Amino acid sequence: MAAVNDRGPVVTGADLGDARRRNVPGTPQTVAVVPEPDDKKKVKKEPSFLEILDQWEWIIAPIVFTALAFFTRLYKIGLSNIVTWDEAHFGKFGSHYLKREFYFDVHPPAGKLLVGLSGYLAGYNGSFEFKSGETYPPELNYTFMRQFNAFWGAICVPLAYWTAKELKLRRNAVWLVTLMVLCENSYTTISRFILLDSMLLFGTVATTLCWAKFHGQRKNSFEPEWFFWLFMTGLSIGFVTSVKLVGLFVTALVGLYTIEDLWNKFGDTKMPISTLAAHVGTRVVGLIILPFLVYLLSFAIHFAVLTNSGPGDAQMSSLFQANLRGTEVGRNSPLEVAIGSKVTIKNMGYGGGLLHSHVQTYPEGSGQQQVTCYHHKDANNDWFFYPNRRDADYDAAAEPRFIADGQTIRLLHSQTGRNLHSHQIAAPITKADWEVSSYGNITVGDEKDHWKIEVVSDAASRDRSKIRTLTTAFRLKHEVLGCYLRAGNVNLPQWGFKQIEVTCTKDNKPRDTYTHWNIESHINEKLPPGDPGQYRSPFFKDFVHLNVAMMTSNNALVPDPDKQDDLASQWWQWPILHVGLRMCGWDDKIVKYFLLGNPLVYWGSTAGLGVFGLLTVWYILRWQRGYRELSQFDIDQIHYAGIYPVIGWFLHYLPFVIMARVTYVHHYYPALYFAILTFGFLTDWFTRNQKKIVQYATYAVLDATVIGLYIYFIPICWGMTGPNRQYGYMKWFDTWRMSDA
Amino acid sequence: MATTAPQGTLRQRSVAGSKNKDGASSDVELDKLVKAANQRPKAVSENDHRIAFFIITILAFITRFWGISHPNEVVFDEVHFGKFASYYLEKTYFFDVHPPFGKLLFAFVGWLVGFDGHFHFENIGDSYIANKVPYVAFRSLPALLGALTVSVVYLIMWESGYSLPACILAAGLVLLDNAHIGQTRLILLDATLVFAMACSLLCYIKFYKLRHEPFSRKWWKWLILTGFALSCDISTKYVGLFAFITIGSAVVIELWDLLDIKRPGGALTLAQFGKHFAARAFGLIFLPFLFYLFWFQVHFTILTRSGPGDDFMTPEFQETLSDNIMLSNAITIDYYDTISIKHKETKAYLHSHPERYPLRYDDGRVSSQGQQVTGYPFNDTNNYWQILPAGADDKQLNRHIKNHDLIRLRHVVTDTILLSHDVASPYFPTNQEFTTVSLADAYGDRAADTLFEVRIEHGKPNQEWKTISGHFKLIHNPSKVAMWTHTKPLPEWAFKQQEINGNKQIAPSSNVWLVEDISSLPANHPRRAKVAKKVKTLPFLRKWFELQRSMFWHNNQLTASHPYASLPYSWPFLLRGVSFWTQNDTRQQIYFLGNPIGWWIASSVLAIYAGIILADQFSLRRGMDALDHRSRSRLYNSTGFFFLAWATHYFPFYVMGRQLFLHHYLPAHLASALVTGALVEFIFSQDAVEHEVAHQAAKAGKKSQTPKHHLTARERFAGQSLFGSWVATGVILTLVAAGWYFFLPLTYGYPGLTVEQVIRRKWLGYDLHFAK
């Protein structure tokens, strides 16, 4: 039966419980049968055409909607033959898969793998560079790649239909929700290009559907269908988080639902403990382990496909790189390092980069030359091992002197000839540490250029009298200050090009991997070449490493006050449809696309959220005043078809409010879907007791307006050709810059 | 729904057969029935409480005032708050991100002792003696408030009906806390803040206890006092908002119970409820807001002279201050005046010279090859521009230029006219190039492109355009781009001067320029004659609103890192302190740090409390009831309120982007001390079985007629041993006192410590000075 406590997520002390108990007696046993609100034309006896239509609505409607979805998403999709907006990124990543070159990006790989797949299916060889605004070469079937992407966007429409139906909305409301998704200009536009957003949207919509279906099966625990939808939920969670980490928000929604569900079951003292344990266990498997496996799998494929060296190498550990085809790392480089060797030095912490220096100086502190960690290969990463100032000078002609554990050396930056140096000046960001700079030259300097090598471990040998390329992990201790060289994944501001801050930390923590370094590339002509890259790094370590690197560089996407970015927008602008986004150049010759939503969908759904808040407060206050106007079915309906979508909206919206990174209009799209569901619920709720005529009139007006506005604004989705001024009629506000008129 | 079993059953655990007539907050019932059940003589003297309260207050004054004259130098943020007091005394306008109340109090103290504000507290370590500053008087104010805070903590516990040991423990934790002592002996705002926060809790508890006599005189008194305390809190620092959240949440719960149709005291009509609601809104929102505004009014009334804060305000605002350079030097600009125009943000002048833009830039784009227009930071005759009217060049003099007028600008040296057109600028493909054209072109085919609109910031239509005070944007009339410049220098071909271009985004304040001087006017020209100073006035609300916006904006800008800034997660564990002051020759230092033992005990008690609540919820959910009715009520309502205060004063810091310091935890620490006192009583005292029996009996039937009043601790614990609580309190306070004494030299700043002594105090690797 329907449990009382399902009403609200509030769980407080015993006292509240009493208040909630009140309506137990007399609560009707509501059976979870989908109410059939369609009672039109019941008078007629023989099945008329309309009746047959009515009977077959469940199959006809989705087909019609799907067909329309495919039409709107695919129509003239190849019109613009230039690389549009972020196609420059995602197309390029797709190319990397086809060329099997290792690259690095902040998003997980699943979406980009699919882009790569679409390129493969289109017979594309990966040779195009996808420079923004460039024309596609004739041999590249970009139309197919876009169609492949549009497929995901179109599929959202029938999924939305089934979701609304599963949430027990009446037929008119189901249609309204579906129409609002179908006739949403921003969804249409974003689905028509080689971007990840259509897949993200698909994942979000699919997860919501699976969740609703799973919820619908709650009376049939452990039945096959129940299992099916549980695992489908898990799979789609896995898919959506593997496309973009934004998928974690819809995961959180499912998580909240599961916690509430289990809390109810926990309170059911009649349920055997073993059953309860089974409930917990199945959810752990279905909603945590399964999605995680999917996520892992996407990375496994990623690593399996990308076996060649590429632009993202430097993000990974040296050992990983050594196993890429075509890499310089570990190939023919001498095994043991000697004085005079030219090396690059890699930080071994997760997401660590190469020790780097460049001629730019610190704007504060010492004002000397910057030392950073950098993730790209570059001549500024090269350092020479030099003897300390007490020892005999480096003699290029003499026999090589090998470097041992505990030896004190200098590191000379090869491009600028300066020494790696530290002094008692606070580091620019991590103020508790000392600043590290490049200072002096071969002859000029002091003992603050001296670093002592402390070997932590060596995968190849126990012999500590030499340090080895790739396999030796060592720390560099500043001889004078006693501090350790560290790069802790803290990004410098714009003056340091957002590279990673390098400091000298006073804490002696031998286990801190951010103070561990290894030699990555090693050049010394006097030494025999070896093959240090025969050791493999384990998959799981690579996986964690790559994920940490993703997180770190995502954090670096903070807004840059020095840069003018008129494409970015802010969170408060989205729900009120304050701005749109120009996806390409605005020349007369270019086919122009403008990212803007359907005004009714945006404004209506935003208003709906407010109305829903008032509605909830209204019913809660009435409840406390003793009105019992809602049946258990009504309460459940508000709870699952109203409150959960609203929570979903908050989960997808608030993070962008708090987040300090650069945000764009399309970040609102997943949240918008939940706002649409809320709007559908509200329309359903307010019309449920109205006369038929009022109902039909309301829906007719809403449906017609949604469709009308969609068609009115359709040129921004299908591409505006010719001078932009002729589209001035759509420019309702100055901030809608689809036209310069 | 999820389960098949009827949920009702598991709710029935507590009292079989009861009719569940009471809902939340059953204290009301409680009072009555216990009263009815044990008809003990009401000879409850609270003398022991009075004695304890007296002793603790004395101790608080001793700990706060002892050695307050040391050090006789400026310490840490005294640099700021001492300075602000001086500004008030000198009546010079200054700007700060905190509201004025706390600073006004310091100024008041300074005024009482006759300080004239001549010393500006410039550097940490400046001598007070040499500069003749009555710093002891200044420091007495926070010390006084800090000492009273301890008393208020005691009163909160006492008023909430806790036993003697619980009250002593909670007050003792604050009394013997090095952080509270350290922060309240210096010229800082936190003493005022913490005191106001504690007072708001106390007043609210007083108010809540009067809930059975709504709208009585006393009820109103405590309601308004709560509001006043809250207002002082938020008028000192904006973190005072958290106290509003604490009290606000409690009020919402209270109102929720009042709304209950099955309320124990009888349902309220909606009109009655409305009255309750309105009274609280009036007392806790409206009045505090008025008080808050009042302090700003005082602020503006005192600060009538221009000072270091002028630059944060708009020119209109600055004109309300006397002695203001803006007011005295502003000259109305006429057509045919020759002027120099300065960019407000980068201080560069609008400049031009005969060199031309290169045909092709490095990235391959082409230019118009027109004459260069750049930004140049130094005085130069090439910065001179003459203003020509938009119409024919009619040479009519003595016409003022008004807001939104269209003008042309003639570059005097090269005799060319400023122009912008749809050619990309050297660095920004999105922005328009600025160049100049000959007079012939300017009055010929390019006429439209040489027209610019003067848009005065916050200007009224027809407002006259003035030098210096008249900040404006220069909008290119046909294309509506704003003249803009930035700091990235152009390449060698433009002598590394700044790029000037047309910005399509007109709104940003980086487009603002000002006319620095009219170079065509001789120094003794009548138009330069200074009119007698006339200070303008602005409506208070407008001034307040402007200041408020500016404060919030600058508050958000406080993101720069500080060597001793810390993150919220580290506070309950007291991982790190703040170095306030050091003196090398005596090896003395003040290191702001809490009493580690006290903090760790308080923080673990918070965890224990959360654990108890969770365990209780889980067992209730499984139909097991381990607590008696009254203990649970106290645990959830009274201790829960303290816990809420802690949570609302702690967790919001996690989402705050600005610089944070350990002292931000002080209000939360005070709340954690309250929880500690309450929970130690809960754990170490036995349940009063007889009460529970009485409770059951009373529930079953008769309603007591005894007058409602609150239970004192003595009544609650009558006849039962408090031995456990006393022992626990004794042990904890002994430990805390030991920790307090151990860290005293770091709090009071003397005596100086030897290396070994310093190292012994580096418990969690505290970064103390003089460790070697």
Automatic annotation (TrEMBL), chain A:
Pfam families on file: MIR (PF02815), PMT (PF02366), PMT_4TMC (PF16192)
Annotated transmembrane regions: 56-75, 194-214, 226-259, 280-305, 600-621, 642-662, 668-687, 699-721
Stretches the record annotates as Disordered: 1-39
Reactions catalysed, as given in the entry: a di-trans,poly-cis-dolichyl beta-D-mannosyl phosphate + L-seryl-[protein] = 3-O-(alpha-D-mannosyl)-L-seryl-[protein] + a di-trans,poly-cis-dolichyl phosphate + H(+); a di-trans,poly-cis-dolichyl beta-D-mannosyl phosphate + L-threonyl-[protein] = 3-O-(alpha-D-mannosyl)-L-threonyl-[protein] + a di-trans,poly-cis-dolichyl phosphate + H(+)
SMART domains, per the entry: MIR
Molecular function in Gene Ontology: dolichyl-phosphate-mannose-protein mannosyltransferase activity
N-terminal signal peptide: none
Biological or metabolic pathway of the protein: Protein modification; protein glycosylation
Domain of life: Eukaryota
Membrane topology: Multi-pass membrane protein
InterPro entries per record: ArnT-like_N (IPR003342), MIR_dom_sf (IPR036300), MIR_motif (IPR016093), PMT-like (IPR027005), PMT_4TMC (IPR032421)
Residue ranges annotated for the MIR domain, each copy included: 334-388, 400-456, 464-522
Keyword set, alphabetical order: Endoplasmic reticulum, Glycosyltransferase, Membrane, Repeat, Transferase, Transmembrane, Transmembrane helix
Role noted for this protein: Transfers mannose from Dol-P-mannose to Ser or Thr residues on proteins.
Family: Belongs to the glycosyltransferase 39 family.
Name recorded for this polypeptide: Dolichyl-phosphate-mannose--protein mannosyltransferase
Provenance organism: Podospora bellae-mahoneyi
Name of the gene: PMT2
UniProtKB/TrEMBL annotation, chain B:
Membrane topology label: Multi-pass membrane protein
Predominant localisation class: endoplasmic reticulum
UniProt subcellular location: Endoplasmic reticulum membrane
Alphabetized InterPro entries for the sequence: ArnT-like_N, MIR_dom_sf, MIR_motif, PMT-like, PMT_4TMC
Keyword annotations: Endoplasmic reticulum, Glycosyltransferase, Membrane, Repeat, Transferase, Transmembrane, Transmembrane helix
Reactions listed under catalytic activity: a di-trans,poly-cis-dolichyl beta-D-mannosyl phosphate + L-threonyl-[protein] = 3-O-(alpha-D-mannosyl)-L-threonyl-[protein] + a di-trans,poly-cis-dolichyl phosphate + H(+); a di-trans,poly-cis-dolichyl beta-D-mannosyl phosphate + L-seryl-[protein] = 3-O-(alpha-D-mannosyl)-L-seryl-[protein] + a di-trans,poly-cis-dolichyl phosphate + H(+)
Associated pathway: Protein modification; protein glycosylation
Region (Disordered): 1-25
Enzyme Commission no: 2.4.1.109
Biased composition (Polar residues): 1-17
Ranges where the MIR domain occurs: 330-390, 398-457
Function statement: Transfers mannose from Dol-P-mannose to Ser or Thr residues on proteins.
PANTHER family in UniProt: DOLICHYL-PHOSPHATE-MANNOSE--PROTEIN MANNOSYLTRANSFERASE (PTHR10050), PROTEIN O-MANNOSYL-TRANSFERASE 1 (PTHR10050:SF51)
Protein name: Dolichyl-phosphate-mannose--protein mannosyltransferase
Species the sequence originates in: Podospora comata
